Every structure is written in C-alpha cells, then in structure tokens.
Amino acid sequence: MFLATGGLLAGLVLASPGQAQHAGQAAPGGARPEASASTEYRAAAERMRRDLNLPVTGDPDRDFAAGMIAHHQGAIDMARVQLRYGRDPVLRKMAEEIIATQEQEIAVLRTYLEPPPRRR
C-alpha cells in the first residue's frame, strides 16, 4: 500500500494545474470543484513539504518515524480532499483506505517517538 500511496502523492504533487483540474469533473450537487480541489491539494502538498523539512537527529529510526508521520499526514490530507470533491468510486475507496491505514501507522510512529518513562 505504501508504494501505491507514494505514487499517488507524487502524481498529485507533481500534476500540473490543468491535470489536477481535469481530475475532478463535478462535485456532488453539480458544482465544479476544480479551483477548490486544486487549492486544497496544493495546500496539503505545501504542508507536507514544510513538515518534511525536519532537522535530522542522526538516529535513523527517529528520523524515519518523524518523516513518515509528515508523509502519511500529507497522504491523509490529500485523501480527504478526494473524498470532498472526487466522484470516482475506486479512488474514493482508496482514499478511505489511505485515511484508515495511515492514521493507524501514525499512531504507531508517534508511540515510538514518545520519550521513555522516567525512573524514580
């Protein structure tokens, strides 16, 4: 699933505005979502880029966990945009799965990053 998500993210982040606009034809209710969806995708991608710009600690496990939290949150944010504006049932199901699985993975990664309990 990670590779599919990474490919989806790369495709959404790298898509030209025309490609991103073409992806959504009409939102429920007949509204044309292109501008709003594109704006939200760009905002999600920018947040992810900002959050991935983390200082590295030299501990590969901690750096991986911190970076993956940002990466997964970006995927979740983009999946939520898909659910708001997208109509394709396959992509909507994928977005739901991305949200569910990556929220679980973020919980595991955050637990890893928690400081160990103090001894008395």
Shape: elongated
Say how many strands there are: 0
Helix content: over 70%
Overall residue-averaged pLDDT value = 79
Radius of gyration: 16 Å
Order of helices and strands: HHHHH
| Low-pLDDT sequence parts | 1-25
Task: Summarize the biggest pleated sheet.
Answer: none
Essential attributes:
120 residues, mainly alpha, 0% strand, disordered N terminus, DUF305 domain-containing protein, DUF305_CopM-like, Ferritin-like, Ferritin-like_SF
Describe this structure in words.
By secondary structure, the protein is mostly helical. It has a domain at 34-51 and 58-114. It has five helices and no strands. It is elongated. The N and C termini lie far apart (43 Å). InterPro entries: DUF305_CopM-like, Ferritin-like, Ferritin-like_SF. Keywords: Signal. Residues 25-113 form the DUF305 domain.
Summarize this structure briefly:
This protein is mostly helical and 120 residues long. The chain has a domain at 34-51 and 58-114. It has 5 helices and no strands.
